[in-house]
UniProtKB/TrEMBL annotation, chain A:
Name of one Pfam family that matches: BPD_transp_1
Record's bilayer topology term: Multi-pass membrane protein
One term under GO cellular component: ATP-binding cassette (ABC) transporter complex
Protein name: ABC transmembrane type-1 domain-containing protein
Entry keyword Oxidoreductase: no
Single GO MF annotation: transmembrane transporter activity
CDD domains: TM_PBP2 (cd06261)
Biological process annotations from GO: amino acid transport
InterPro entries with a match to the protein in the record: AA_ABC_transptr_permease_3TM (IPR010065), ArtM/GltK/GlnP/TcyL/YhdX-like (IPR043429), MetI-like (IPR000515), MetI-like_sf (IPR035906)
Compartments, record wording: Cell membrane
Superkingdom as given in the UniProt entry: Bacteria
Lineage: Bacteria, Bacillati, Bacillota, Bacilli, Lactobacillales
UniProtKB/TrEMBL annotation, chain B:
Signal peptide: 1-27
Keywords tagged on the record: Signal, Transport
Domain Ionotropic glutamate receptor C-terminal: 43-265
GO cellular component term, pick one: membrane
Entry protein name: Solute-binding protein family 3/N-terminal domain-containing protein
4Fe-4S keyword on record: no
Keyword Transport attached: yes
GO molecular function: ligand-gated monoatomic ion channel activity
InterPro entries according to UniProt: Bact_solute-bind_prot3 (IPR051455), Iontro_rcpt_C (IPR001320), Solute-binding_3/MltF_N (IPR001638)
Database matches in Gene3D superfamilies: Periplasmic binding protein-like II
Solute-binding protein family 3/N-terminal domain ranges (all copies): 43-266
């Protein structure tokens, strides 16, 4: 294993860098998109509600690999995008559907009295949402959001299929050059943990902190 | 009931562990166990490609794999043990060596070039096809040969685990190399413009060019990478039997007939070139 690290250390680090970059972009992107579609879904009008439902149901129920391949093979014919970009877009859209569902559940978990109170005090629908409902909703959804983020990092291995240079891609390359089918994946597994464990712990810390604050 | 569940659980664990440790512990086990297995079960499990036209391609109508590799495997099986039935499992360039070392397949006949690095992990038969690397481009591409590829703005496409990717890196160090998971994906990537040129063995590229009129081979064959049949190490008797079978096929005309059957019609390809040994 030491031999692998000394020979292919640069490749592992390159993979780590691309995985981290893709995960960070997809995390920010999917959080914004997911929250946006959760809000659109709870707008009390049928048209925005169904548009959001369509978005969520389509992206949530197609395999991530299919979405990614669609961008890599089909969309790249129109816009020039490489494997890394296709994979990251796929990851963002796919995760955003799950985040939208999670955030929506959080919004519904806020007692209706809160919403009614806001409206009764003369706030508009959007003001009530932004100042009263959403801040409380996010407290409820921190634990499931943490799960989504950990899943997102792991799902970024989809980049390997479209030559996105991520950790999984490097592990495949190294194991196929060295015929060592065991150790490269162990190393890569540890590197994934380096990203996912801090997320898990930070989410747990946030959860505790918010619970204390009530 | 509880006991059965326990046994199933234990079985799963043992199976799981045996899959986790590929290839280890093979050296101290008995020699020639693969040949013994073939002769007792009357079944020879081959790893072939299922995505490579002319060599090994899944026929969707029949569900069977067809191609030159498959035909050679059938003949060799017959000559090793007349009673044995050839069985075909799909492999890719990336999965074939682990599957062989794991014992999932008895032999690989899957467009696999004989290389010194691979020879450290598996044993090879004598060459059964004189393959070599070439280039596939979209018609109208400015790339005419391997020298045109060596530029910073050129992206080469290849397949993970194939020698051609390494050769491409050496011959065109300035170009960018992307390794995709299989030939179907690599071909789609070429058509989608994700890369400028797809490189691998001419025999594989010929199948792609035969399929799509917008693609063509350029630059001729610029390496000599004969294909061999791979067998797990410590099976000298099986290697010997396979070599004898190949020699017999070359002697009685079966071999030439098979090469002509698959490569006789490919434009711009001289099938006799492939039969050199």
């Amino acid at each position: 294993m030491m031999h692998l690290i000394s020979m292919y250390g640069v490749d592992f680090l390159t993979g780590f860098g691309w995985t981290l970059l893709s995960s960070v972009i997809a995390l920010v992107g999917s959080l914004i998109l997911g929250t946006l579609f959760a809000i659109i879904e709870v707008i009390p009008r049928p048209v925005p509600h169904y548009i959001a439902r369509l978005y969520i149901e389509v992206l949530r129920n197609i395999p991530l690999l299919v979405i990614t391949m669609f961008f890599y093979i089909v969309v790249s014919g129109i816009f020039k995008i490489n494997g890394f970009v296709s994979g990251t877009i796929g990851l963002t859209l796919y995760t955003s559907a799950f985040i939208a569902e999670t955030v929506k559940a959080g919004i519904y978990a806020v007692p209706t009295g809160q919403y009614e109170g806001g409206r009764a005090n003369g706030l508009s629908w959007w003001e009530t949402m932004r100042m009263i409902v959403l801040p409380q909703a996010f407290k409820y959804v921190i634990p499931p959001l943490g799960n989504q983020f950990v899943n997102l990092v792991k799902n970024s291995s989809v980049l390997a299929f479209v030559a996105g240079f991520d950790l999984m891609y490097q592990a495949n390359q190294i194991s196929q050059t060295t015929f060592d089918t065991f150790n490269p994946y162990i190393i890569v597994g540890i590197l994934y943990l380096v990203i996912t464990l801090p997320i898990s712990y930070y989410m747990r810390y946030l959860e505790d902190k918010l619970a204390r604050e009530g | 009931m509880k006991k059965i569940l326990k046994m199933v659980g234990l079985g799963t664990v043992v199976l799981g562990m045996s899959m986790v440790w590929p290839g280890t512990g093979q050296a101290d086990e008995k020699q020639n166990q693969v040949l013994n297995k073939i002769e007792t079960r009357h079944e020879m499990v081959w790893g072939t490609k299922a995505d490579t036209r002319l060599m090994g391609l899944m026929n969707i109508k029949t569900g069977k794999v067809e191609g030159f590799d498959v035909d050679v495997a059938k003949e060799v099986t017959k000559l090793i043990d007349p009673k044995a039935k050839p069985v075909f499992n799909e492999v890719t360039s990336g999965t074939r060596i682990p599957l062989l070392r794991n014992g999932n397949i008895d032999a690989i006949i899957a467009t696999m070039s004989i290389t010194p690095e691979r020879a450290k992990a598996v044993d090879f038969s004598k060459p059964y096809l004189m393959a070599g690397q070439s280039l596939l481009v979209k018609k109208g591409s400015s790339i005419k040969n391997i020298d045109d590829v060596n530029h910073q703005n050129v992206t080469i496409l290849g397949v993970q685990g194939s020698t051609s990717v390494e050769v491409a890196k050496q011959k065109a160090p300035n170009a960018k190399v992307l390794a995709l998971s299989d030939y179907a994906t690599a071909l789609s990537a070429l058509k989608a413009g994700q890369g400028d040129v797809l490189t691998t063995d001419a025999s594989i590229l010929a199948g792609m060019a035969a399929e799509d009129k917008h693609l063509q081979l350029v630059g001729g064959v610029f390496t000599e990478e004969p294909y061999g049949i791979a067998i797990a190490q410590d099976n000298p008797a099986l290697v010997k039997k396979i070599n004898r079978a190949l020699a017999k096929m070359r002697g009685d005309g079966t071999y030439d007939r098979l090469v002509k059957k698959w490569f006789g019609q490919v434009p711009g390809m001289d099938w006799k070139e492939l039969t050199k040994s």
